[in-house]
Known about the structure:
By secondary structure, the chain is an alpha+beta fold. The protein has twelve helices and 33 strands.
Amino acid sequence: xxxxxxxxxxxxxxxxxxxxxxxxxxxxxxxxxxxxxxxxxxxxxxxxxxxxxxxxxxxxxxxxxxxxxxxxxxxxxxxxxxxxxxxxxxxxxxxxxxxxxxxxxxxxxxxxxxxxxxxxxxxxxxxxxxxxxxxxxxxxxxxxxxxxxxxxxxxxxxxxxxxxxxxxxxxxxxxxxxxxxxxxxxxxxxxxxxxxxxxxxxxxxxxxxxxxxxxxxxxxxxxxxxxxxxxxxxxxxxxxxxxxxxxxxxxxxxxxxxxxxxxxxxxxxxxxxxxxxxxxxxxxxxxxxxxxxxxxxxxxxxxxxxxxxxxxxxxxxxxxxxxxxxxxxxxxxxxxxxxxxxxxxxxxxxxxxxxxxxxxxxxxxxxxxxxxxxxxxxxxxxxxxxxxxxxxxxxxxxxxxxxxxxxxxxxxxxxxxxxxxxxxxxxxxxxxxxxxxxxxxxxxxxxxxxxxxxxxxxxxxxxxxxxxxxxxxxxxxxxxxxxxxxxxxxxxxxxxxxxxxxxxxxxxxxxxxxxxxxxxxxxxxxxxxxxxxxxxxxxxxxxxxxxxxxxxxxxxxxxxxxxx
Length: 564
Ligand code: IPD
Ligand code: CA
Ligand code: CA
C-alpha cells in the first residue's frame, strides 16, 4: 500500500488506552480542523466492519503502548486499514511516534508523505484456534492448580515435516521479526531488524537443554508443534488464546495478509527505540527529529526529479484502488457516446492524483480529464488522465493505464509517467534525461520499412487506417490506451502509432516518454504534436520510432480523411 493514498483519507478510528485524554483532545481538534470524521474506541471495544464508511479512506490510530497498537493491528488489519501508533506507553517498539509529534505526523500522513510498511504476520491454527498475529505465539505449560506441581512441558517441533527435536522447559515462542523484541529477547533470542525481514523464529523459553538455540526459518515454513502435555497457546500476548491438549497438533506459518503500519518522519527509528529503551550499548539514543527528504541514493533531488518521483508515487497510489476495482465495476456512466465511459475508478484515481499533486505543488496548474482545469500561478501545469483505457477497464481487460505529465508554458512535456497497474510497469521520463520502463532504459526499434513493421492504432472512425495499413505492414493492433501505446512504441514493441483524435491528457506523458526514448510524435502533417491545457481541443497523432516516420506520413492518402 502506498502512503500517497492516505492523502485522501476522510475518516479516522482511534483505539485509545486509559489516561490518553490529552492526546485524544488534541486528536479531536486536529480532525475537526481538517474535516475528518473521528471515532474513539476503548481498548477491547469491538469495531464492526459497518462502522467504516470506506476502508480505503480510513486511517487507524492507536494511542497507548504496544498493547494498544496490537489491538489496532487485530481490529484494522483484516480490512486493510493502515495503522499509525502514538506511543504514550513507556516501552514501545511498534507505536513509535511520541504524543508531542502526533499533530505533525498526522499532517504528514494527510499530505500523502507517510509510508505504509507491510509487516509480516503469522497464522496459528489448531486447538480450535485460527488466529493471525503480528508479534508471536507463545506455547507454554498450563499453570498447575497447586504451585508446587510440575510447571514444565515437552513439545515436539517439526519444520516442513523435518523433526527439529523436543523442547523441555517453559515452552517456546514463535515470533515474527516485529515480535522479536519482547518475549524472544528476554529468552536470549536475537534482535531482528524488522524492515523487509520475512522470517519466523522459534525461541525456547527457559529450556532445560544446554545448547538449544533460537532457530530462524522462512516465513513460508510450516512449523508443527505437538505437545506431550496440555499447553496454553497465546497469540500476541493473549489477544487470541486456547488450551491445546496433549497430542493436539498446532500449526504455525506466515500469514497471507500483512499488517499495514504507517511510518512518518516523526517516528522513533527502530535502532533508536532499541538504544533508548533497552540500552543498545554500541549506540546511544540520538536525536529522533524529522529527517530531510532525500532521493533513494541519499542525494538531494532537483525539481524535475522530485516532480517525477511524486508523479510516480501518485500513479502507484492511484493504481491500487483502480486495480482493486478492476473486474468489479457495476456502474458505468456515459459521457459523449456509448464508448465514452467513466467509472468509479476514474474518479477515485483522479481524486488521489489531484490531492497528491496539489499538496506538493499548490501553485501549479492542473488539467485532468475528470476534474477539469485549475489554473496555476507558475509556468507549470500537470496534465493528467487518471484512467486511460476506461473501455478496456470496464470490460475487465487489463490494458489500461494512469498517465501523469508535467508540462511547461511552452507546452513542452518535462516529466512523463505512465503506469500500468496490471503488469506493474512504470514508464517514465524526464526531458533530456532518457526514458525508462521501471529502472531499465528503453529505446524504440530502428525499422524503416512498413512491410517489416507492426503498427498500433486508436479510434479509427471508418476503419480507413486499418484498410490502408493492414496489408502494407505486419499488422495493425488496436489495444485501447493511447498512453500505453506511446510507451510501447518508445520501448520497441511496436513501430508506429496513429490516432484519429486525441486529447492532451491521453498523450502528454507518453509524448515525453517517446521523445526521450528517441521516437517522434507529430500530427498528420508532420507538425510537432501540440499539448493544450483545455478540455476541448483534440489533435490527430502520428507517432513512431523516428526512422519510420516519413514513410508513415508519406503513406497517408491525399484525400484528407485525416482530420485537419
Ligand atoms: C481513450 C483511450 C483510447 C483512445 C481514445 C481515448 P479514455 O481514453 O486512450 O485508446 O483511442 O481516443 O479517449 O477515454 O479511456 O481515457
Ligand atoms: Ca484517455
Ligand atoms: Ca480517461
